[in-house]
Amino acid sequence: MKVLVFGAGQLVQMMYLAAAPLGVDVKAVDVNSRDILHPVSKQKLEMTLDYALSDADVITAEFEHVPEDLLALAGETGKFHPNAKSILTGADRVREKACLDIANIPNAPYKIIKHIDALDDAVQALGQRIIFKASRDGYDGYGQWRMMIPEDVDDIRIAFASLDLQTVPIVAEKMIDFEREISIIGARTSDGKVSCFDIAENLHYQGQLHVSVAPASNISDSLKQKAHYIFETLANSLEYIGVLAVEMFQVGDELLVNEIAPRVHNSGHWTQNGAETCQFEQHIRACLNFPLGSPQTNKITAMINIIGCTSFSRDLISIPGCHLHWYGKEVREKRKMGHINVTANSYFELSEKLSKLLTFLPEEYFPKLAGEIRRLK
Ligand code: ATP
Ligand code: MG
Ligand code: MG
What we know:
This protein has 377 residues and is of the alpha+beta class. The chain is built from 12 helices and 17 strands. One magnesium ion binds at residues 247, 258-259.
């Protein structure tokens, strides 16, 4: 069987690695050059896009920012999963907010800014602390502006002056004082069966995911039920097929959805070493209409992103339960270079292993991991 994936980053690489044991071949599409690439070596394959589209049993995407003409081409084949509607919803925050509201799913209060004149009204409505998000093309916190004090509005006005807000509106969101961020990741099959992994707890710095721990600790049954209800409601409303991620803020016993990712997700990488079936294999299974794998957690797992650096010792894999997943990309500031999964049988054991891991990592990881280590103890 053959799967063609829009996007040529680390997610398609990990899909390829997870699909191979099932006898499923995965190829990547560079959506800019339209070249067909090997997902690991990134070498160009001698094949046209048209041929690759017709040759594939299933077409899917590793990210939501797929050019609309490619989405249309894939849609015409009838082989595209999850589906164009889900990708467009994940790619456009205006659609995403509408989708959440229609499904009655709680989310951060917001205003849509399509003209600079609407800025003051948004500030009036949302209060003193606001996060402004470009409705399209943002990821890892790019395309966002934060208003932390009222005076920041002047900088924001200047930043917005050069934007085409008609074409790409801004979603202004009330800054939520959440207790923590969590995500629920799961799969939905073509016959509507839904199967979720355990909930992950996520730590972000400057809008970018740095650490996930799964299963999230101290999560009440009522919160779990709410997260599952939200997942199922959204997956059903999108008629979703494949793996879907939903990012949420926990505020007391309430959950507000931050955003959805219509794809495998960074906060699901822990499943590679901590769950019976990893999210990449699960996505392949769901898309090809194979039976789903068990999402059961085998080990408590922490996932640590290696961001913008290569200066660490590979010997960290000497720590029992420590697994390196390296993407082979050129180093760039803020770029996700790889991740480390650390598995353990208890939160305490995990904290001990993370303390050991710190000795192999650059100093800048200390503040990121120290808090987690204390919390898990
Ligand atoms: P991703 O790489 O996850 O797609 P993104 O660029 O799409 O990221 P968001 O997930 O919308 O951005 O925001 C990034 C982070 O910024 C969130 O994980 C959270 O830490 C913070 N954030 C976003 N919206 C809010 C909000 N309304 N209130 C408080 N913090 C927020
Ligand atoms: Mg996003
Ligand atoms: Mg996000």
